[in-house]
Hints:
alpha+beta; globular; 3 helices; Cytidine Deaminase, domain 2; 23% helix
Amino acid sequence: MQLSKILKELSEKYDSEVERVGxxxxxxxxxxxENVCAEPAxxxxxxxxxxxxxxxxxxxxxxxxxxxxxxxxxxxxxxxLNWPDLVHFIVGTDGVRQYYVEEGEVLVAD
Length: 110
């Protein structure tokens, strides 16, 4: 799996109108799932069926921040702690940033 390819493809997912969300599979394939949040410009929610389908094959999660940078929000922090074995990508106006969980803390990958 080439990180540079994943970062390039994820940067193309940026949307200034709504949050987009999905998974990066262990094969490197990037999957987008439906954002079922009542306020998709403000956040994201994923259907349980999509989690059951893709989480076992996932290497990472990803989502976008419309009209915002790729810094971690409080909701992102809490969500990432629930998925400590996955890498997490946020796509913002300033590109893609990678996060991971170590010893109960969410950290930025260098």
